[in-house]
């Protein structure tokens, strides 16, 4: 396949300039919000002052976020160097593998944290926060499964860099392993549910998180194994 | 994924052509990892990929792969 042509290079450079300008605009917006919040808040007391304080705080956060983004996207930074196709392919594939190591770990950490929330829900005392707590590991399991399957935005927009025959093979094997975990876990959840229905419900986030994490970690593991020179 | 019946001359042909795995990967439009796994016999390429690799190395599929009886 030919190297990235001039049109693509110009398009990429334009996109980077646009992102840098957006980051600068975010700094300005954040600075304006914080300035306005401070000025207005200093003239108020009580709840009104708190409200303006929150606006000022949000402004500072936005300005800091914008500054970090602007620093990353600054002209002359690595990202501004035009990448050749192989470099971009390697970078994006490495990025996907990093995500597939990190997100399953986050999923499992959230799963552990959600056990207390699940107990509260099963006891009939669940609050909105508890429902969010038990949903998060399931959501992350979906994110991991989506990245593995190539359904995420990054995979869809950079298909030609992230998809090739080997990717298909890695995906098939990763999903195969996740399917085993899913079947096994769902069977256990079913049996637990027959015994005590609430236990069956409590087991489901473990099954989903386990299956999602298996897909991601298996993909990343195989990618690492196949990357070794033989 | 690999199969002992498939013999490969890919590495020999590639090095004879003075190409690195990365250069061949770029020519064939795949990742270096794919070329690496095909060379190591870990991964059997599809007919399409085999044709791409053969074209990138200016040879035939039979010139790259053979049945190891």
List the helices and strands and how they pair.
The complex is a heterodimer of chains A (230) and B (69).
Chain A: H1 6-42, H2 46-72, H3 85-122, H4 128-149, H5 153-157, H6 159-162, H7 165-195, H8 197-227
Helix pairs in contact in A: 1-2, 3-4, 3-8, 4-8, 7-8
Chain B: E1 6-8, H1 10-16, H2 21-28, H3 32-39, H4 47-56, H5 61-64, E2 65-67
Antiparallel strand pairs in B: 1-2
Helix pairs in contact in B: 2-3, 2-4
Protein name (chain B): Transcriptional regulator
Keywords (chain B): DNA-binding
Domain HTH cro/C1-type (chain B): 10-64
What is the spatial order of strands in the main beta sheet of chain B? 1-2
Percent helix of chain B:
40-55%
Query: Which structural class do you get from the secondary structure elements of chain B?
Result: mainly alpha
What is the number of beta strands of chain A?
A: 0
SSE class of chain A? mainly alpha
Roughly how many Å is the radius of gyration of chain B? 11 Å
Report the principal-axis shape of chain A.
flat
Biggest beta sheet attributes of chain B: 2 strands, antiparallel
Residue windows where pLDDT falls under 50 for at least 5 positions of chain A = none
Keywords (chain A): Membrane, Transmembrane, Transmembrane helix
Transmembrane segments (chain A): 20-40, 52-73, 100-122, 134-151, 172-195, 201-221
GO molecular function (chain B): DNA binding
Keywords (chain B): DNA-binding
């Amino acid at each position: 396949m030919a190297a990235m042509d001039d049109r693509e290079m110009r398009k990429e450079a334009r996109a980077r300039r646009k992102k840098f300008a957006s980051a600068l605009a975010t700094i300005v917006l954040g600075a304006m919000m914080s300035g306005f919040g401070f000025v207005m808040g200093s003239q108020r007391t009580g709840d009104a002052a708190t409200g303006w304080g929150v606006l000022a705080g949000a402004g500072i956060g936005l300005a800091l976020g914008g500054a970090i983004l602007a620093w990353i996207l600054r002209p002359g930074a690595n990202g501004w160097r035009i990448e050749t196709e192989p470099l971009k392919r390697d970078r994006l594939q490495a990025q996907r593998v990093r995500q597939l190591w990190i997100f399953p770990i986050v999923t499992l950490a959230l799963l552990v944290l959600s056990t207390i929330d699940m107990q509260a829900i099963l006891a009939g005392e669940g609050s909105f926060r508890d429902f969010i707590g038990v949903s998060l590991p399931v959501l992350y399991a979906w994110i991991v499964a989506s990245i593995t399957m190539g359904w995420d935005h990054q995979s869809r927009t950079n298909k030609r860099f992230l998809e090739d025959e080997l990717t298909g093979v890695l995906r098939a094997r990763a999903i195969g392993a996740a399917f085993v975990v899913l079947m096994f876990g769902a069977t256990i959840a079913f049996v637990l549910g027959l015994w005590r229905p609430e236990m069956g419900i409590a087991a489901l986030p473990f099954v989903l998180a386990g299956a999602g994490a298996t897909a991601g970690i298996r993909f990343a593991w195989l990618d690492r194994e196949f990357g070794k020179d033989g | 994924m690999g199969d002992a019946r498939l013999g490969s001359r890919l590495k020999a042909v590639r090095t004879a052509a003075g190409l690195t795995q990365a250069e061949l990967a770029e020519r064939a439009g795949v990742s270096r990892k794919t070329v690496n796994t095909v060379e190591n016999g870990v991964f059997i390429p599809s007919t399409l990929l085999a044709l791409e690799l053969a074209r990138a190395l200016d040879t035939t599929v039979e010139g790259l792969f053979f049945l190891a009886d």
